[in-house]
Amino acid sequence: MSSNKKLKKSKPGKSQKILPSKPESERTAQQKLKAEKQWKGPGHLKPVLPGSWLMNTGIFFLFVIGTAILYAGDLHLDFFKIDDQQYVVNNPWIRSINPENINHILSNSYFVNYSPVHLFSYIVDYAIGGSNAYGFHLSSNIWAGLGAGFVYLVGLALTGRRIVAVLAAVLFVVHPVHVEAIAWISSRKDLVATAFILPSLLAYLYYRRGGKTSIRWYIASLILFLFAIGGKLSVAVFPAVFFAIDLFLEKRLLIKSLIDKIPFLLIAIGFAMAVSSAQPGTGVHPDAAVPAMAFGQSMWLLTGFGKYVIYRVAPQPTEMGGEIIAAIILISVFLAPLFIRRRFPLLVILIYWILFTFLPTQVLSFAYPVSDRYLFLPSVAATILIASIVINASERLGRRGLIAASVFLLALAFLWGNNTFRYLSEWKDSRSVWYGAKEKSSDPQVYYNLGWHYMDMAARFGTSPRKAPLPETEAKEFASAVWKEDPRLPALLSEFSTGKHNGLTEKAFQEDLRKLAWDDLEQSLVKKERHIMPDLFFHRGLLLLDQGDSKGARKEFLAGIQEASRLAFTEGRQEILINIYYNLGVLEWGITEYKEALRWLLLAEQEQNQFNRKVIPDLTTHRKRLEEIIATLSKK
Questions:
Q1: 198 DSSP assignment
Q2: What is the 3-state secondary structure (H, E, C) of 552-563?
Q3: Dihedral sign, CA of 51, 53, 58, 63?
Q4: Residue 583 contacts residue 541 (beta carbons within 8 Å)
Q5: Which of 381, 453, 535, 603 shows its CA 20 to 30 Å from the CA of 266?
Q6: Burial of 66: CB neighbours in 10 Å, binned 0-12, 13-18, 19+
Q7: Rounded to an integer, what is the distance from CA 259 to the centroid of its chain?
Q8: Alpha helices in 483-549 (DSSP H)
Q9: pLDDT for 279-330, tens place per residue?
Q10: Which residues, in sequence order, are CB contacts of 184 under 8 Å at separation 6+?
């Protein structure tokens, strides 16, 4: 009787229907879908980094090692003449880890910039390996590898999918736009800033997860941001990416999203003021057409199929009508992602990441608004964006679609890697970089640096070399590259093997180098246009002085002084003036115009004392010796 009553209670009423039970797999799938819909951002119901820390750490270090192996070919490179000399070779503040050097780096700008963490990375390199360029290149490769590892972790945190994160990191490692930033030691700034700003983003995502440790993660994010901006000011706008995550992914209230960005803003303002006080004015009138064209070029470089070169011709300003159109295009580019913010919030965040990190390069750049190294941080978002779009688009096709998408992305990585290897092959030595660049760019700096290199190498050959002679092996390698198709090469190599430097073939080779140098310096002068290049006139004068043309050398040196007067960069102006004054003194000394020579040497010494660095170490010794000669002659 009781059992019958229970059965009756369990019967459905007239308005009720008995639904068939759902399979367990379907219920689980619906629960997951419901949980994903309820997830309001990083950390809510989902871990920031799915998977075990051991697996994620292992994959992280695989990308660090992979990057270091890929760029192992740059370990034999020496320091470059541009920037490397100032930042590393002649920088007295990185040669020891002591309170004085640390305090100086923290409290002073250096080389028209304020990037203390960037300089601290050199201090560590110097402490470990001394002044050997090998150690500095290895360090840059490791910094780039750390960036690649964090790309994997950030991709995993933002998408929650390991396959997207892994493929994005693979694309990042092989992207050809990174070669300049990694192989050129002075571009370490971009590597350091990226290696700190990405974990700052991860810490911010942990902070947004909430919980007892959230305030600790917020402080960690703030400290890492401080280190990142201490590497390079261009990351100052990156907290806007945090803001975009709050608005588009978490749907967070606007006022709350703004409040916790205030400390980031204050740090950014402080560093911006320090850098702006150190950097001279560019003297360039703002023109919306320049960043608009620079944006187009930069986006093409991010595709992995651009023309990668160390200096490219900068976009030129347009007429007023073109500037208005360019401004409209730029505004449209920044507004367009808002139309897909509800359906594709993560894509919008990644697009704005690219846009936000593109802007500082336009505000802070001097003469080159488009440069490969500027795209190191934007390429993080670009690779995650590409991997995410391709993988998500393949989901409708099931497992086969996922395999096809993975194959497509790996094929893309292969093509990018091939471009990277081809560009890296140009970075064999100081000549090959500029020689390869001349085939792709007509910028005057390319011709100037190639001509400068030929001139310096010519000074290392002959019976009375002005610079230290090259070791036999290096001399043969260089000659084989320059005279690759010249029938005189075997005779030249034979002269090198004998150790004699008074042969006719070596003399002809030296003269050929000087001719090559003059041709490139002449091309640089023709293409100079609005560029201010006192160094160009100085090296033209030095080359003519090597050839015994005192009259021509004096004319070039004086033109260099006039050109230097237009230079807003105080340190650069002082350094080039010291060199020009000194060499004018040497020139006049050589033709026995001793009093005129002394006048120039005194000017050089006065400028060097104000510069507070020994550009010409034995300048005072030469000046005293010349005074003794004049005093001796006056007694006769």
A1: H
A2: HHHHHHHHHHHH
A3: positive
A4: yes
A5: 381
A6: middle
A7: 32
A8: 489-498, 504-527, 534-546
A9: 766 555 667 888 999 999 999 999 999 999 999 998 877 666 678 888 899 9
A10: 80, 83, 84, 310, 373
